[in-house]
Amino acid sequence: MSTRILVLYYSRHGSTQALARQIARGINSVSDCEALLRTVPDIPPSTEQHSDPYLTLDELKDCDGLAMGSPVWFGNMAAPLKHFWDTTTPLWVSGALIDRPACVFASSSSLHGGQESTLQSMQLPLLHHGMLIVGIPYSEPALHTTQTGGTPYGASHLSGTPGQMSQEEKTLAQQLGCRLATLSARLKNYQCD
């Protein structure tokens, strides 16, 4: 059975979705690992079609790892994503996500628009669920050269030009996905005595 890793994101203009797809490429590069791209509905609900299905609590409960991404909204995650996490109390009560690896990613329209504070705030519900946070270590060379996005807290993207992503941003996102997949596969069958 393959290791199933959710790539959950909310994207209004496509930049966070593009970053999610790079994370998924990194996940899929690891043998026997599968990325499942999912999103959350708008608030208020809209009739706009999304290219990926909405995440269900059952899918979240059954995942082996999670990558979560959001656009930067005033230094925090987008409201639709926060709203989704506010519905996960049953999983928190049961401990369903304890010891599952997770990482975060974000996109912003300005370099100092709050990428790092958004990444850190997105980690809070994951920590409350007992998940294990995966970041990008400084052993990754692109972390030293990027001038647009990418932090030790997670992958990020400066969305100055729609549809454009720097090579460093792509590399960091793919490496984060690869690292998440590798750790998820290793921990999938591990149990404490």
From TrEMBL:
Name of the top EC class for this enzyme: oxidoreductase
Keyword Cytoplasm listed: no
Cofactor: FMN
Claim: Flavoprotein is one of the keywords in the record: yes
Residue ranges constituting the Flavodoxin-like domain according to the UniProt record: 5-181
A Gene Ontology term for the protein's cellular component: membrane
A GO molecular-function descriptor: electron transfer activity
Gene3D superfamilies from the UniProt entry: 3.40.50.360
Similarity comment text for this entry: Belongs to the WrbA family.
Protein name in the entry: NAD(P)H dehydrogenase (Quinone)
Organism: Vibrio mangrovi
